[in-house]
Design brief:
The protein is built from 17 helices and 14 strands. It is of the alpha/beta class. The protein has two domains: about 15-55 and about 95-205, Rossmann fold (3-Layer(aba) Sandwich), CATH 3.40.50; about 60-90 and about 215-395, Rossmann fold, CATH 3.40.50. The strands form four sheets. The chain has a six-stranded mixed beta sheet with strand order 3-4-14-9-10-13, sandwiched between helices. A four-stranded parallel beta sheet has the order 7-6-5-8, with helices on both faces. Strand 5, helix 6 and strand 6 (about 135-140) form a beta-alpha-beta unit. It is globular and about 55 Å long. The mean pLDDT is about 95. The chain binds pyridoxal-5'-phosphate. Pyridoxal-5'-phosphate binds near residues 238 and 241.
């Protein structure tokens, strides 16, 4: 059953009715070439050995699984375990796919890797991977975000990437996407657009997923080694969905393991300020692929919001849309307040400051644990650390 899921998407990049390539024919040819190169390159021992070597010696994999004893005791009920992606070099799961993408670009003989970034997390992970692999990197970022995310901007500069400030429109992520894309289409034969999650046109949802499956593959084996069985629940936060699919893939064939994706309810599902795409969205096309969308009546993406900037995206990875429809994964929501509560509890009970994104999964696990008996186990993908959020939270809570 697990292999059946791994064989997805189909040749045209569809997971059921989601995914595909909703792009002009010229770009479709380029995407197909990336898909073919990826298929060839990833089979080679050289590529496998290179990527595995970097995961081990550079990222610090395998990341441990940690039993959160004090958090479990506070909640009462099911035991809570954390897959510690926060301990990776650069502090989150994103390095797993950025290394894969940078290596692939290098193997394909591309001259420049391009991307947009919002809060700067994807930008820093990609700039890191490009510095390591030795390929030029150009990141487009809205001027407002540049002012807000100073530490990440500084890191990108130190890492040697070219940072392009975007001054048009809202001067935030949406315009940064447009700006980076315009640069990309100037020379898509020599440039490589590195997408930051399991979104965008085929083959990106598949490629980024494949690079992230290391998380679940390790976690499944580690959990079995520790506990002699599988967890009852595995859960992760969902923005575009890369850390979640990375954890879920290894468990898809294990029917006894319930999978839960956690979306941001922001200021409430009854307000406009959330990004609960799978919970409240409808089907449509966005950024070159079909998925659930938060869109207006004309099909334009709605402004979305979350206290965790890595989760505020109006679409979601096509495989998640499919897994929702066939009911293999359940998607739930956590609001800003619950997220902040989990952020503080994990910090003060375990000495682990989580990313605000990851704190959404922690918050849902805390709620669920209370309803379950002590013989049950919940495994959370702790996708990143909260250094980037510490100042914001301290100010927000007047600490
Ligand atoms: C970017 C980010 C996310 C959201 O991205 P996904 O593709 O949904 O995983 C989650 N957690 C952290 C720490 C991030 O940096």
């Amino acid at each position: 059953m697990a292999t059946q899921f791994l064989e997805m998407p189909d040749q045209n990049g569809y997971f059921g009715e989601y995914g595909g390539q909703v792009i002009p024919p010229e770009l479709k040819a380029i995407m197909d070439e990336i898909n073919d190169s990826y298929d060839k390159v990833r089979q080679t021992e050289e590529f496998q050995a290179q990527l595995q070597g970097l995961y081990t010696d550079y990222v610090g994999r395998p990341s441990p699984i940690y039993f959160a004893k004090r958090l479990t005791e506070l909640q009462g009920g099911a035991r809570i375990f954390l897959k510690r992606e926060d301990l990776n070099h650069t502090g989150a799961h994103k390095i797993n796919h950025c290394l894969g993408e940078a290596l692939l670009a290098k193997h394909m003989g591309k001259t420049k890797v391009l991307a947009e970034t919002g809060a700067g997390q994807h930008g820093v992970a990609l700039a890191t991977a490009c510095a390591l692999v030795g390929i030029e990197c150009e990141i487009h970022m809205g001027e407002i975000d540049i002012k807000k995310e100073h530490p990440n901007v500084t890191k990108m500069k130190i890492l040697g990437c070219k940072l392009v400030p975007v001054t048009r429109g809202t001067k935030t992520l949406k315009d940064a996407v447009d700006s980076a894309f315009e640069e990309y289409v100037k020379d898509p034969i020599n440039f490589f657009y590195a997408i930051g999650s399991v979104v965008g046109p085929h083959p990106f949802p598949r490629m980024v997923r494949d690079f992230q499956t290391i998380v679940g593959t390790e976690a499944r084996e580690q959990f079995q080694g520790k506990e002699g069985r599988l967890p009852d629940y595995a859960m992760a936060c969902v923005g575009g969905g890369s850390n979640a699919i990375g954890l879920f893939t290894a468990f898809l064939g294990d029917e006894e393991v319930q999978l839960i994706g956690v979306e941001p309810a922001g200021k409430g599902l009854d307000t406009a300020d959330h990004a609960a795409t799978l919970t409240l969205g409808s089907k449509g096309a966005l950024h070159g692929f079909e998925c659930y969308n938060l869109q207006d009546e004309e099909g334009q993406p709605l402004p979305v919001y979350s206290i965790a900037s890595g989760l505020d995206y109006p679409g979601v990875g096509p495989q998640h849309c499919y897994l929702k429809d066939i009911e293999r994964v359940q998607y739930k929501t956590i609001d800003d307040k619950e997220c902040l509560d989990a952020f503080m509890k994990l910090s003060r009970l375990e000495g682990i400051i989580p990313a605000l994104e990851s704190a959404h999964a922690v918050a849902y696990a805390m709620k669920l644990a209370q309803e379950l008996s002590a013989d049950k186990a919940i495994l959370i993908n702790l996708s990143g650390r909260g250094d980037k959020d510490a100042d914001f939270v301290a100010e927000y809570l007047s600490l």
